[in-house]
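Much of the work behind modern protein science is quiet bookkeeping, done one molecule at a time. The protein below has been through that process, and both of its lines are reproduced in full.


***
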Amino acid sequence: IDTAGMDDEGDLGKLRVERSKKMLMRTDFALYVMDAEDISSEDEKSAELLFKRFHIPFMKIINKMDLLDQEKTENLKKRYPDAVFVSEKDFSSILRLKDEIVKRISKNMEEPPLVADLLPYGGTVVMVVPIDSEAPKGRIILPQVQCIRDCLDHGVKSYVVRDTELEKALSDLDYKVDLVITDSQAFKSVNEMVPPSIRLTSFSMIFARNKGDLAVFNEGLKAIENLDENSKILIAESCTHNFSCEDIGRVKIPRLLNERLGKNLNYEFKMGHDFPENHEEYDLIIHCGACMTNRKTMQSRMRICSECGIPMTNYGVLLAYLNGISERAMAIFREEADLGEETA
């Protein structure tokens, strides 16, 4: 993604710079491009500080090298031994740049699996996909697709059923199932159908672990019992979609929270990349599974909330808590890491 840079001036320039800084929250790898004839040490240091704040690996690129004589070129290469030097008039330098970008990105872009590292090779997963008014016609949603692909990539057998056929599917498999993954909205009914001997979690919690930090989300639950009518809650979704009377973020979670506390709480809703800067105004932030954004975006949002001391949790973690099955839904993750004490 090309940005406006960090050195625009004037009122419009300030807005462009702020937009560039926001983009850093979503950046996995940064290319910092400098003009060989006009390098600002101050701007360079400011950019490096931003990269370090958001834990972004980066490489420096110095352009317009054709404008320098040999002496200036040699001095610049001594000053920036790790930079890549290019000129639009030298096609071979562009090819070298592309090769270097691929090499450095490959080194920094490995992501952990979604499901496969939780299960043995050849293990069995049943995925529960309710078909209601929220389900898109003719297809399944991204979290389900990605979990199926992760199982295929790592030799884990996966079965996909509706909640209405779940009990029959488990019986057909003679209950030899390592894990059931359900849509968080069906947690309560699925929990009643799945025997205690079979581990259970949700798609949202799988993604919370993959892109965020389950320990942080579990800790965020502790803020719930202190909420009152004056509390301000942000519900954040990484995608933009049309919502209905069954929408999990705008309808079901607020209703369940209000019923749990016996109070009408104040909610705000943000979608897509529209994550507010006034984080300190909120008493709790509830985030979706973030399947439509990258790991960097989720990590950046969590870091900002942590810096402001704002508790944060996740749809699946919250719904497990509200349905009284946090311990069961977290069990498979506790087996691989210490996620803190259970929140009653």
